[in-house]
Each structure stands twice: as structure tokens, then as C-alpha cells.
């Protein structure tokens, strides 16, 4: 969700980042609702959000017992 920076409050690092960047808007991410579609990365005006694809390769390794 993209919101105005004036709507966001927080402590510590959140406040420091908003003030240091003089942000006009911020993007809020709720990891519980994220479906990993990549729209946040596509819409991010500063390219601060990145999405990368990767693939896992499953490998079965047999080890001798007792040796």
C-alpha cells in the first residue's frame, strides 16, 4: 500500500529513515498478506524494493551408515 509519509509514525529506524530521505510517500508491506506478485517492486518510485527469482534444485545425497 502506498501512503503519504505524513500518515506514517514509528520509532527508531522508521522515523530516522523517513526524516533522512525526506520521503513524500512510503510503501507499507504486510508480510501476512503478501502474495509475492512483485507489484511493490514495479511501483516503487526509488527502486528500493527489489524482487528476484530463484529456483531450488532438490538433491538426494546418500551417505554410508557407520562410516
Main traits of this protein?
67 residues, alpha+beta, two-stranded antiparallel ribbon, 2 helices, 9% strand
| Number of extended strands | 2
Q: What helical percentage do the residues reach? A: 10-25%
Radius of gyration: 20 Å
CA-to-CA gap between the ends?
A: 55 Å
Mean pLDDT: 78
Widest β-sheet, arrangement of strands:
1-2
Count of individual helical segments: 2
Unreliable stretches covering 5 or more consecutive residues = none
How would you describe the shape? elongated
How is the biggest beta sheet arranged? 2 strands, antiparallel
Q: SSE order in H/E notation?
A: EHEH
- Estimated structural class: alpha+beta
Strand content: 5-15%
Short description:
This protein has helices spanning 13-21, 39-43, and strands at residues 2-4, 25-27. It has 67 residues and is of the alpha+beta class.
Can you walk me through this structure?
- This protein has a two-stranded antiparallel ribbon with strand order 1-2.
- The termini are far apart.
- 21% of the residues lie in helices and 9% in strands.
- By secondary structure, it is α+β, with helices and mostly antiparallel strands.
- It has helices at residues 13-21, 39-43, and strands at 2-4, 25-27.
- It is built from 2 helices and 2 strands, in the order βαβα.
- The model has no long low-confidence stretch (mean pLDDT 78).
Blueprint (SSEs and pairs):
Blueprint: E1 2-4, H1 13-21, E2 25-27, H2 39-43
Antiparallel strand pairs: 1-2
Amino acid at each position: 500500500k502506498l501512503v503519504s509519509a505524513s500518515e506514517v509514525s514509528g520509532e527508531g529506524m522508521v522515523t530516522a529513515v523517513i526524516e533522512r530521505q525526506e520521503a513524500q510517500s512510503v510503501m507499507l508491506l504486510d508480510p501476512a498478506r503478501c502474495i509475492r506478485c512483485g507489484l511493490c517492486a514495479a511501483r516503487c518510485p526509488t527502486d528500493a524494493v527489489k524482487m528476484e527469482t530463484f529456483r531450488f534444485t532438490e538433491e538426494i545425497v546418500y551417505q554410508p551408515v557407520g562410516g
